[in-house]
Specification:
globular; 18% helix; 1 helix; 5 strands; 72 residues; Conserved Hypothetical Protein Mth637, Chain: A; five-stranded mixed beta sheet; alpha+beta
């Protein structure tokens, strides 16, 4: 499954919000430094979709707030 993810860093809470069938917004308290926010996004999406973190791959947007993610 391929989804689009908008990431909001420095949030008060960590959560995933569904915007449409293939678009989500992820709020994370992690800082966008040294991949911390990407790791937090992967962890939050794995909990949301009830799958292993290894099944979630960020395809584009490693250094952007808008990402394309593939979930196996």
């Amino acid at each position: 499954m391929r989804i689009f993810v908008k990431v909001r860093t420095f949030a008060k809470t960590n959560r995933v919000e569904k915007l449409s069938e293939d678009a989500y917004r992820v709020y994370t308290s992690a800082k966008p430094v040294d991949g911390q926010a990407n790791k937090a996004v992967t962890k939050l999406l794995s909990k949301y979709f009830k799958t292993a973190k290894s099944n979630i791959e960020i395809i584009t947007g490693q250094k952007s707030g808008v990402k394309i993610v593939i979930i196996n």
